[in-house]
């Protein structure tokens, strides 16, 4: 037989819609996974042929067993492998000889289990590549496609829905599956990726983006296996993608990388990536579930004006607070609507927004209010804060509503199921409901800010730091406006340079080993005389020697004191996974304290830069605030574009940090810069 070195994407069809399945490691013991998965495939309603593979059993669950897939005469599309790790490569070789197109390796004990397991996984990958077999796993919880139907996973869940769940963690994925099942929403499919020896998130997103049963893709990852492919898939995807990405903190990244032996990556870079391609990022498992649910089942709304109609004043206040945070407009009730509601609502009900119908309300009152109010707002927020029977009839009246049901006990549970079966999503708290609603609003409403990593004062290994003089010279050569300076290496030369420039001056260490000068006392500002300049030189060199004892640190920069303005920061980091990332925000010595910065991946156009600038919390300050003039927005845009150009033209540059860049009503000026080269 002639083997192929190309694993065709068409073989993914065999994962989701096989016509025959072999369960390698099927067991008679109900306590074992090999028994449960075989039973779940059978009980899920799979209509194809099922072949238990077990050399010691003649029959399991009424199905005749075979000793090997090679003994099966008919074609097998998919193999589910549940045997000890050391036997898996040889079994996959048999699958290749049998021309099986895809396999799901449930077994653990591979790259997550140390060097021996890692070697075993590489052998598994080699064999799969040789025979063109698509592999899910190893170390995974399987696959479940209710539309096939086939549940080669656990527990057995058969509800059909609109959301595909892809998870690097079996438990996170199983929790999502359980919630969708419990709420009678179902899923379009579930894939537990495990160690991703072959099939990974990019393959699955691209496939499911074409799947007619999937409307929303929900992805849990700890890191991306193929960043370049992931970037391209995000660029081309048409369906909403919700991502829960763990490993956001330094310790979380370490835990994530040790869990699956994959790079977790810088969270700021992922934040920039997700913003660029309108990915819906969740911070918790609850948000992961809620955001997926809202995108699949809530309609698109024409605007953001919302009226809350409630039986609970407290819940409505919580909803209003969250709505304000999410950029929704809890607009005052028009007088015309208030008059129309007078004969409908209780006399003691205040006709305002929120509209509290009090505990006297029943479904009929809700219906009458909705009928009158529906044309005055873009969204009606229905908050059932009591056991309101027939609430589902109210929610079914119009599509442009958000349903929040809490405090309704058994009635709430019954009504929620009815609404879900009608395709109307229900949320259990005001906060969760409003956050979920924000995901279907125009994506211009952005609040998240990516935070920079805390920097160190000494340059890290593997990178070469240019002294500030060369850093500023490099920036200036590309057209970035930079402050004038003189280089001096003796007290006398420092004083002479200061007289030449004109007092007052700033004096800074000019070193290729000291990164953040202010932290070490290596910057002196407002120097007003020659004697003070000489004294400052000695103090700077002495401070530098405390951390760079074996280095030549006798050189300083003498610069004119820049006129006061708004201190900003411009930066670039070259991420190992996604390439150059541009940073902009409020700068100065307190940049790590305020952390008011945003990141964007390249390439960048002018429109993207403008949106980037508007995302920082201090954006109103740029436009002029409390009598202060607006800064030169065009100059900031040009500065960011110049930095983007440098990142593209100079791939040898690992990092650029221009801080502060002082923004004025006319122009900007880089006062300090650090450039790190890749070694």
Task: Explain what the structure shows.
Helix 18 crosses helix 19. The chain has 679 residues and is of the alpha/beta class. The radius of gyration is 31 Å and the shape is flat. The chain folds into five domains: 153 residues, NAD(P)-binding Rossmann-like Domain (Rossmann fold, 3-Layer(aba) Sandwich); 139 residues, Rossmann fold; 139 residues, Succinyl-CoA synthetase domains (Rossmann fold, 3-Layer(aba) Sandwich); 77 residues, ATP-grasp fold, A domain (Dna Ligase, domain 1), CATH 3.30.1490.20; 113 residues, D-amino Acid Aminotransferase, Chain A, domain 1, CATH 3.30.470.20. The longest helix is centred in the last third of the chain and has 18 residues. The chain has 23 helices and 30 strands.
Number of helices: 23
CATH fold topology of the largest domain: Rossmann fold
**What is the top-level CATH class of the largest domain?**
Alpha Beta
Average pLDDT, rounded to a whole number, is: 91
Number of strands: 30
Major sheet summary line: 7 strands, mixed
Short description:
This protein is an alpha/beta fold. Residues 1-8, 257-264 and 444-460 have low confidence and may be disordered.
What tags apply to this protein structure?
679 residues; Rossmann fold; seven-stranded mixed beta sheet
Layout: helices, strands, pairs:
Elements: H1 12-16, E1 20-24, H2 33-43, E2 49-53, E3 59-60, E4 63-64, E5 78-81, H3 88-97, E6 102-105, H4 115-131, E7 134-136, E8 142-145, E9 150-153, E10 160-167, H5 170-182, E11 187-192, H6 201-208, E12 216-221, H7 227-236, E13 241-245, H8 250-260, H9 267-276, E14 280-282, H10 285-297, E15 306-310, H11 313-325, H12 335-341, E16 355-356, H13 363-373, E17 379-384, H14 391-395, E18 401-405, H15 409-421, E19 426-427, H16 430-438, E20 463-466, H17 468-477, E21 486-488, H18 491-501, E22 505-509, E23 523-527, H19 530-547, E24 556-560, E25 566-575, E26 579-586, H20 591-594, E27 597-601, H21 606-615, H22 619-622, H23 633-649, E28 653-663, E29 668-670, E30 673-678
Parallel strand pairs: 1-2, 1-5, 5-6, 6-7, 10-11, 10-12, 12-13, 13-14, 15-16, 15-17, 17-18, 18-19
Antiparallel strand pairs: 3-4, 8-9, 8-11, 20-30, 21-24, 22-23, 22-24, 25-26, 25-28, 26-27, 28-29, 28-30
